[in-house]
Structures are given as structure tokens and as C-alpha cells.
Amino acid sequence: MEKALFLAAFFFAYTVQAITGFAGNIFAMPVGATLLGLSPTVSILNAMGFFACGLLAVLNIKHVNWREFGKIIAVMIVFMVVGIWLDTLMPLHVLLKIYGAVIVFIGAKNLIFTRQKFLPEWALWIILALAGLIQGMFVSGGALLVIYAVQKLRDQQEFRITLSLIWTVLNFIYACIAFQQGHFTGDVVQIIVMCIPLAVVATVLGSKLQKKISQEKFLKLTYVLLLFIGMVLLVTS
Predict the structure, then answer these.
(1) Which domain holds residue 79?
(2) For the segment 159-170, what is each residue's pLDDT rounded down to a tens digit?
(3) pLDDT at 90 (0 to 100)
(4) Is this structure's pTM higher than 0.85?
(5) Nearest 10 degrees: Cα torsion 82, 183, 174, 86
(6) Which InterPro entries match (predicted)?
(7) What's the domain count of the chain?
(8) Cα(62)–Cα(96) distance, rounded to whole angstroms?
(9) 93-112 and 142-152 helices cross at what angle (nearest 10)?
């Protein structure tokens, strides 16, 4: 029963992921952690994030903004390493709550005040660096990356596919770490196998739904998801 409920949550989460290019693991993680345990869920979602995001990126590779992809990956990986190092030195849960509150504020502000205000280039570099830092410390830097990407990747196809390729790389790194640590047990592999066809269907379905969404509605959906992510961080940290 637990596996069936997780698979249903996974299918919904990865349909959202295919529509927007982010937020899939945020939806699936709380359900999986409750039903299967945190460590198995993290391993499953790392593997499936690599597979599903990679599939979406490969099928739409022409929409990747390679310049932004290279910049984001280079900056995030460097600051991810710093974040992982900091996480071993000090308790940082208070910082995670502050981060969640900031994301809630940004999501709510952009939903209420629909006129988009552009940040200066230096501020975007700071946001990107912080996204890598938070990703390294809490595996939750996606919300800040979305704030950066909304300004830099203003076409929704370019936004979702470039982000998908970024998640492919990052999830692959985390999946390799989990494999090295022995987290891919028989049960975990079994659930991954069951998730693969669901991920394929979710990717196809999400891609079809995305084509029906206007740029304006896509932005609103993005900020709604940011608001949700911030609330999840506040509740779970």
C-alpha cells in the first residue's frame, strides 16, 4: 500500500516537473519520506530526477540555452562544494527557515504584484551563488535557481528544458554519491524500476499540458510553486 501511494504521488510530482522544469522532488519528497523513509526516498528521487529530467532534456535539446546552462552548472557546483563543507561544520536549520521565509515572500510578492521587476546583473550572480550554496547544504537550492532563471530564461520552453538539463547533472552527482554510500538497496532498485514507466508517461503528459499554458500563466504557476516550496521548507525544517 505504501509503495502504491508513493507511486501515485511520484506520478503527480513528475507531471508537474515536466510542465515547469522544477518542483517534482519537492512534491514527492514529503510523501516518500513518510511512507518509505528519508534515505530510500532521496536515493529514488535522485535516480529518477536524473532519468526523467534527462529524458525531457534530450527530447527537447534544441531549447537548451547552452550559455546559461554552462554558467549555472559552473557556479552551482563550486558553491555546492562549499555548502557541503559548511554543512559538516555547523547546524544550519535556522538558516533553512529563513530561506523558506524568503522564498514565500518572493513567491507571494510576484503573485500579488504582477509587473515583473528585473534585478541587476550583480544581484543575479549572488542569487546563483546562493543557489549552489543552499543546494550543497540542504539539497534545496532550486527555488533560488528558479528566481535567477525566470529573469534569464524568459521563454517557457527554454526555461523548463534548460532547468531540466541542470537537474539531470545535479541529480546524477547525488545519485553517484548515494550509490557509493550503499543506499541503492534491493527495495530501492525495485521502486525505481516501477517508477521508470510512470516517469515516461508523466513526461509525455506534462509536455502536452505545458503546450496549452500561456507565458503569463506559466509565470503565475512558477510563483505558486515557489510559494509552495517556501512553505514546505518552513514546515519541514
Answers:
(1) 2-236
(2) 999 999 999 999
(3) 63
(4) yes
(5) -10
(6) TM_pro_TauE-like, TSUP
(7) 1
(8) 36
(9) 30
